[in-house]
Specification:
- The chain is mainly beta.
- It contains 1 helix and 9 strands.
- It has one helix spanning 73-77; strands at residues 4-7, 13-23, 30-32, 45-48, 53-56, 61-71, 80-86, 90-97, 116-124.
Length: 125
């Protein structure tokens, strides 16, 4: 997958992390969408775990600037919340339903048009 590099006025170079995540089919697992309408940047893989999704992004980062994950309107209307724990090479996305503090199993979520949106910047050396 492509990694877009941005140069800031102050000098640091930033790698753009961005992608759309969607479950392929009921119970078939999550994927990074890459088609004529979706162009991920910097994301090199996706691993589905029982309690979270793991995104790999081996772009050579030395520092995290910011990364966020959000639900689309379908999941928002159903009270799905998400949060991301970010590292230099991988990030973990946790999903929560309503007011629960226990993560939802990603495999249990399916909507033919339900998406998660990941966007962020990592500082490069």
């Amino acid at each position: 997958m492509t990694t877009h590099i941005l140069a800031t006025e102050a000098g640091p170079r930033l790698a753009l992390l961005s992608c759309v995540l969607r479950q392929k089919a009921a119970g078939a697992g999550w994927e990074v969408l890459a088609d004529s309408a979706h162009a991920p940047s910097g994301v090199t893989g996706l691993i589905q775990h029982p309690d979270h999704l793991e995104i790999t992004h081996a772009v050579g980062a030395v520092r995290v600037s910011s990364v966020q994950v959000t639900v689309d309107e379908y999941y928002a209307a159903r009270a799905l919340r998400c949060g991301v724990s970010v590292g230099l090479d991988l990030s973990r996305i946790y999903l929560y339903s309503g007011t629960s503090t226990s993560p939802v199993a990603p495999a249990s979520l399916y909507a033919s048009s339900g998406n998660l949106w990941l966007t962020g910047f990592l500082e490069l050396s």
